[in-house]
Automatic annotation (TrEMBL):
GO terms for molecular function: nucleotide binding. This is Oxidoreductase. It comes from the Bacteria. It holds the Pfam family GFO_IDH_MocA_C3. Residues 29-135 form the Gfo/Idh/MocA-like oxidoreductase N-terminal domain. SUPFAM superfamilies: Glyceraldehyde-3-phosphate dehydrogenase-like, C-terminal domain, NAD(P)-binding Rossmann-fold domains. Residues 145-276 form the GFO/IDH/MocA-like oxidoreductase domain.
C-alpha cells in the first residue's frame, strides 16, 4: 500500500462532532496519518486534546499561521500534505486560500466561504495552485446516493420532471426561543456564520444532493425564509422553489426548528420512467418507484450495484454502514486524487461545488429580501 498521506487538522478539538467524524473517516481506509494540527485557538487546550488522541505534540501549533510557517521549513517528504478545515464558517476562506497559495491540498467543511465573491477568489487560487480541493458534502459518500446518481446517469428515470429535497432538523429550538442564547451562539451570528443559517448550513446539502444525483443544474429559484424573532438576523427555516429547465421543477425545504426532527435529509426524484426516493436516516435503502411495477429496493453490497456504489461499500450486504463510512468514502477519493490515481468524478465534491453552493445560498437570501422574487443562478 502507498505510504500514508500526512494530514493536518484545523479545528475539531474537544467534543466537536465534526472533529470526530473527520478523524474517524480519515482512518477507515488506512490512507491518512494525522501529522499536525491546531485543534483549538487555545494552545494549552489544543495540546491537551492532542495528548488524548495521541498526536505528536511537536507538530501541534499555537495558531494557523505558525502551522504554515513551520511546516514549510520541513523537507517536502515530511511536511503535512493536506489540511482539513473544521473551523467555524468565517475561517474557511482565509485558511483555504493560504493553504492553496502555499501548495497544500485542502479538505474543507461547507459552506466553502461566507460569500460568492470569496468563493470565486478561492477558485482562482485553486486553479493557480493545481492541488486537490475537496468540499465535504458528506451525503454524497453514501453508497445508495452514488447508486442513484449512476442509475440516473444511465437513463433509469428517463426525462426528469420534478425533484423534492428536504432537510429538517429541530436542534435550534433549544436556542432560538431564548433571547440570550440566540444572541450568543456563533451559528446565528452573521459575522461568524455568514449570511444564512438554515440554507447555509443544511439547505445547501439538499441543493448539492439535487445537482449531484440528477446531473442537472438549478437555473432559478424563489425563496421564502422564517426568522421567528425580529432580533434574530439569520434564517432558521426556508422553502425554495427551483427551476432546472422549462419543464423540470422542484422544491428544497430546510428547517432547523422542525420540532422533533433529528437529521431528516431526504430526496425524491420523479421522471418519465419512474422515481427514486432516499432518506439519510435510513441510508441503506434506495427505493425505485413505478406506475406499472412493484416498488424495488436497492441495498448496498450487492453485485447489481454500480462500480461507484460498490467502491464505497466496505461490508457484506446486510451490514449497515453509516455517516462515518460516507465521509470516509470522500476521504478515500481525495487520497486517490492526491496520489494521482484514477478516480470517478463522483467520489468527492470539488471547488466547483463550493462555488455553486455559495451561489445558491446568496440567491436564496436575495430572493427573500427582494420580496420573494425569482433569482437566476450563474451557470
Amino acid at each position: 500500500m502507498p505510504k500514508k498521506i500526512r494530514l493536518g487538522i484545523l479545528g475539531g478539538g474537544g467534543d466537536s462532532l465534526i472533529g470526530v467524524l473527520h478523524r474517524v473517516a480519515s482512518f477507515i481506509n488506512d490512507n491518512y496519518q494525522i501529522t499536525g494540527a491546531v485543534f483549538n485557538p487555545d494552545f494549552d487546550a489544543s495540546m491537551e486534546f492532542a495528548k488524548e488522541i495521541d498526536v505528536p505534540l511537536n507538530r501541534i501549533y499555537k495558531d494557523f499561521d505558525t502551522l504554515i510557517e513551520e511546516e514549510l521549513k520541513l523537507p517536502k517528504d515530511e511536511r503535512i500534505q493536506v489540511c482539513s478545515i473544521l473551523t467555524p464558517n468565517f475561517l474557511h476562506y482565509p485558511m483555504a486560500k493560504k493553504l492553496l497559495d502555499n501548495g497544500f491540498h485542502v479538505i474543507c467543511e461547507k459552506p466553502m466561504t461566507t460569500s460568492l465573491a470569496e468563493a470565486k477568489d478561492l477558485q482562482k487560487s485553486h486553479e493557480k495552485a493545481g492541488t486537490v480541493f475537496a468540499l465535504t458534502h458528506t451525503y454524497t459518500g453514501y453508497p445508495m446516493v452514488r447508486q442513484m446518481r449512476e442509475m440516473i446517469k444511465a437513463g433509469a428515470l428517463g426525462k426528469i420532471h420534478k425533484v423534492d429535497a428536504v432537510y429538517y432538523q429541530g436542534w435550534i429550538n433549544t436556542i432560538i426561543h431564548d433571547k440570550e442564547k440566540r444572541s450568543s451562539v456563533w451559528r446565528l451570528d452573521p459575522e461568524k456564520a455568514g449570511i444564512s443559517s438554515c440554507m447555509g448550513d443544511i439547505g445547501v446539502h439538499a441543493f448539492n444532493l439535487v445537482e449531484y444525483t440528477t446531473g442537472l443544474k438549478i437555473n432559478e429559484l424563489l425563496c421564502d425564509f422564517n426568522y421567528l424573532y425580529e432580533d434574530n438576523k439569520m434564517d432558521v427555516d426556508g422553502t425554495v422553489l427551483i427551476r432546472m429547465g422549462d419543464h423540470v421543477k422542484g422544491v428544497i425545504r430546510g428547517s432547523q426548528v422542525a420540532t422533533g426532527e433529528e437529521n431528516g435529509l431526504a430526496i425524491s426524484i420523479y421522471g418519465e420512467k419512474g422515481a427514486f426516493r432516499w432518506e439519510q436516516e435510513r441510508p441503506n435503502f434506495l427505493y425505485k418507484l413505478s406506475d406499472t411495477e412493484p416498488t424495488q429496493i436497492y441495498k448496498p453490497g450487492h453485485a447489481y450495484n454500480s462500480e461507484l456504489s460498490l467502491d464505497g461499500t466496505k461490508l457484506p450486504a446486510g451490514h449497515p454502514e453509516g455517516i462515518f463510512d460516507s465521509m470516509a468514502n470522500i476521504y478515500k477519493g481525495v487520497a486517490r486524487a492526491i496520489r494521482g490515481e484514477e478516480y470517478n468524478d463522483g467520489e468527492f465534491p470539488t471547488m466547483k461545488d463550493g462555488v455553486r453552493g455559495m451561489n445558491f445560498i446568496e440567491a436564496t437570501v436575495d430572493s427573500h429580501k427582494s420580496g420573494n422574487n425569482w433569482v437566476a443562478l450563474e451557470n
